[in-house]
Amino acid sequence: MRERLVAMMNPAAGAASRSKIKDMSAEVVDNNPYSRLMALQRMGVVENYERIRDYSVAIVGIGGVGSVAAEMLTRCGIGRLLLYDYDTVELANMNRLFFRPEQVGMTKTDAAVQTLSGINPDVVLESYSLNITTVKGFETFLASLKAQSSHERSTGVNLVLSCVDNYEARMVVNQACNELGQTWMESGVSEDAVSGHIQLLVPGETACFACAPPLVVASGVDERTLKREGVCAASLPTTMGVVAGLLVQNALKYLLNFGQVSRYLGYNSLKDYFPAMEMRPNPQCSNPACVLRQKEYMESKPARDAAAKTKMEAEASTENECPVHLDNEWNISVVDDETETSSIRNTPDILPEGLVRELPDADSYAGPAAPVSSSAIDDDDDLEELQRQLDALNAS
Amino acid sequence: MRERLVAMMNPAAGAASRSKIKDMSAEVVDNNPYSRLMALQRMGVVENYERIRDYSVAIVGIGGVGSVAAEMLTRCGIGRLLLYDYDTVELANMNRLFFRPEQVGMTKTDAAVQTLSGINPDVVLESYSLNITTVKGFETFLASLKAQSSHERSTGVNLVLSCVDNYEARMVVNQACNELGQTWMESGVSEDAVSGHIQLLVPGETACFACAPPLVVASGVDERTLKREGVCAASLPTTMGVVAGLLVQNALKYLLNFGQVSRYLGYNSLKDYFPAMEMRPNPQCSNPACVLRQKEYMESKPARDAAAKTKMEAEASTENECPVHLDNEWNISVVDDETETSSIRNTPDILPEGLVRELPDADSYAGPAAPVSSSAIDDDDDLEELQRQLDALNAS
């Protein structure tokens, strides 16, 4: 597991094939790469599209979902992208979008920077070829999320996108984001390649990844055929492309303040079914940083209520001047229900149709310095109970 | 409008960076580009994945949706792809996936062949740089769909994917597919970039594109800001990536016989809402070829019923031998309701929530030799009625 930091790199192999553009223009000419994005303002979808240049997004895991998410954000003209992965490109990855056969052998982060800098030289790319689940990797990961960027005045990142393919790495991203109070979005694709999900996690406000066993979309495929020892997971460019698209769409809505940001959205491709739900934080969460963020969130309620009221009043008074305006329901809906912190953790029966718990419980996880052992995840009794739930769901 | 046919080309610029592979293998090794696809068999999702090599798919329109659809099918190892477009690559296309700045000025079909042949040299690529809405272009289009391929014993294509961005081109694809009795899938993305849809069209069995005014997903954005004269449409790589993913996923389900093939699936990205519905053919359809296909479909009902019965009995008897097996509900559901050919054309009130008619009526269209005039589409009275419907929907 190499741990190599390549910051602000623009390798010669990925030399830009267009020159940098100082300001985004809405001018409708063939040689303007931003005209169709700036048109979102004229169409009344986004109030200020160019603000996207002020934002930094970290993508953890540059595989089938993360690489496509990175390309989408790059083509949208995001200000700064931080890319984390420790793996190298193989021909076995060619059944998903993004990487090309001639990149086999390169680290995924280097190959991504090569391709992305050629597509849009305006985006500042930071590439971290490291494993965040090691102690040293976690330290570098945490430091990079907090670091001052040469790109902008503000420190830190605006959003973290988790595109990793395993439980341990998700728990590490969860730990880092809980410690930093950093909003993040999680994504996943099933081992049978036919379902996936995205989820928004706001420390203190929504369930964290340790508050309850992770939710996955039931595919209807017999789960007994999955997860055999040494069996290679299936994957499809379609499922991963859809999940990456839904993830980055949610990220754009969150960053640019339009539409409704989804809390949890599942994708069952066999039935084209998209279950949605919300998850409140668990006051008994095993993650101390999560409990601390929950306490802060409760304490800041009066200030949030006042800000929301001021904003709503300001919008009401300017409504006649701006006839085309979309309320961001995410930002103004915080006044309701928030004193109630009940968790759905102990009531699995209220899950929407088509969603199941991936793992029985997350309590045993103790943070990145002492990663969960595989024996804890493979607890026989819990897995048997989970299997019964899955069987019941598949039989229905 | 150039009309240039470039068949079976593999330009030097897109020289393959891996050698061709004779048979797909499920072996789990890093240098096998098909291991994660062949794993779909072991997972019980697909019965015979390698059959994908026998199939030919035509993609009309190699823009934001069509290019990504082509890349997905190429990475899945489709047998043969036929690509149709008359446009060239511009920097203004760079806000969507696939094309790269160094391809500016190339025809979209040539640029696509360059990229796709580099990704997977096993796929036979046919590139048609022509405009299907001209008389000569339509003739070439029709002939190419029927032609014997050097790739396989069978003639013709197995599926046509329409990824064009205008009504006239969709009506031309509809005309060709009705004439040939060719199953096709239509796709579209709204001008405000935040919604889209896919639709399955089986001549004689489902509504054709002329049976009823096209359905689009209501985005909630004020439609009065859209479709102003000379205003450039907005587009996002996210929405187009999701629509391409849903489209190719539906194509894979149709070709490889797994899951449920969607008839109509909408995508409202502002609310992450996915309306679904079915549309029966209109016995009074203005397209004579559609009416002929409807008649044939009715007449073949007894043979279809017998085949379905035989298939169900065969599956029932082998069920114990193959515990992991997904019924293809699409293929075995034809015994119900099919004698009823009522159309939803004259009952717009039964549309599912979030769907609206894009145009008031399609009757005025007379085939590719006499394309519909813009004045027919812009009929003031009909548009006013449509505007009232849209306003009511947006206000709700």
Automatic annotation (TrEMBL), chains A, B:
Q: Where is the THIF-type NAD/FAD binding fold domain?
A: 34-286
Chain intervals with Basic and acidic residues compositional bias: 302-314
**Disordered: annotated segments:** 302-322, 337-381
MF-aspect GO terms = ATP binding; metal ion binding; ubiquitin-like modifier activating enzyme activity
Which CDD domains does the UniProt record give? ThiF_MoeB_HesA_family
Q: Name one Pfam family in it.
A: ThiF
Q: Keywords in UniProt for this one? A: ATP-binding, Metal-binding, Nucleotide-binding, Ubl conjugation pathway, Zinc
The record ties this protein, via PROSITE patterns, to:
D_2_HYDROXYACID_DH_1 (PS00065)
Q: Which family does it belong to?
A: Belongs to the ubiquitin-activating E1 family. UBA5 subfamily.
* Name of the molecule in the record: Ubiquitin-like modifier-activating enzyme 5
Originating species: Zea mays
